[in-house]
Design goal:
Layout (H helix, E strand, L loop, with lengths): L3 H4 L13 H17 L6 H8 L3 H4 L6 H20 L8 H21 L2 H11 L6 H27 L9 H22 L5 H16 L4
């Protein structure tokens, strides 16, 4: 007779899978194709040809096109988070102002170094009706995480007495996020004719001026 433990074994979650070098080759190939042809225009066969493998070999690494796109999203967001890791450490108003402006500089620099950030946002915006709910949920979570980070920055400014205590942190985070998105899209469409770094830094200075306690 089996014991209750043997009859109802506890489910142990599988260990997190670590991407290997071939996975990264496939992700990079998929990233370039999504950027060039969009979500709908990128097929598994096209990814296989670009990576130099058979279509059958893809299924040893990714179940479907959604998994490829999610892997691309994870790569881009991971690099984004790494760019901002440990950025907030201000303990005075002067330090906070410098860090706040540096945040906009970092956003500009990261987009210039990795334009896939803007491409990804454009694909999601233009092809949301063609993309499955699993991918959309991942993007919504990423957006909410971004809002949460910006809210934290604004709240930190309030704690240090730099920003007005009555400032709505959710609305302020929305303004930061939307100004970044708009500027990044213009830069992506117009290239060096649109000075992304200058535009974002100017926006950061205006936020400091408009939200400051001393204005």
């Amino acid at each position: 007779m089996l014991s209750p433990v043997r009859k109802n074994p506890a489910r142990v979650p599988p260990p997190a899978r670590r991407r290997g070098s071939l996975d990264q080759v496939l992700i990079n190939a998929a990233m370039d194709l999504f950027a060039s042809y969009g979500y709908r225009g990128t097929s598994l066969a096209r990814i296989a040809r670009a990576a130099g493998v058979t279509k059958g070999a893809l299924y040893w690494h990714f179940a479907d096109k959604e998994e490829f796109f999610l892997a691309v999203v994870a790569k881009v967001l991971g690099e984004w988070n790494q760019a901002f890791d440990g950025a907030a450490s201000a303990s005075t108003s002067a330090q906070f102002r410098a860090e706040f402006l540096k945040m906009f500089d970092t956003m500009a620099a990261f987009n210039e170094q990795n334009p896939w950030v803007s491409r990804l946002l454009m694909i999601i915006a233009l092809e949301s009706h063609k993309i499955g709910p699993r991918v959309l949920r991942a993007m919504r979570k990423a957006n909410l995480d971004g809002f949460s980070n910006f809210r934290g920055v604004v709240a930190h400014g309030q704690e240090l007495g730099e920003f007005n205590a009555s400032l709505d942190t959710q609305w302020a985070a929305t303004q930061i996020f939307s100004s970044y998105l708009g500027s990044a899209m213009l830069w992506y469409l117009h290239g060096p004719r649109f000075d992304l770094r200058r535009s974002l830094r100017r926006q950061g200075r205006e936020f400091l001026r408009d939200w400051s306690v001393a204005k």
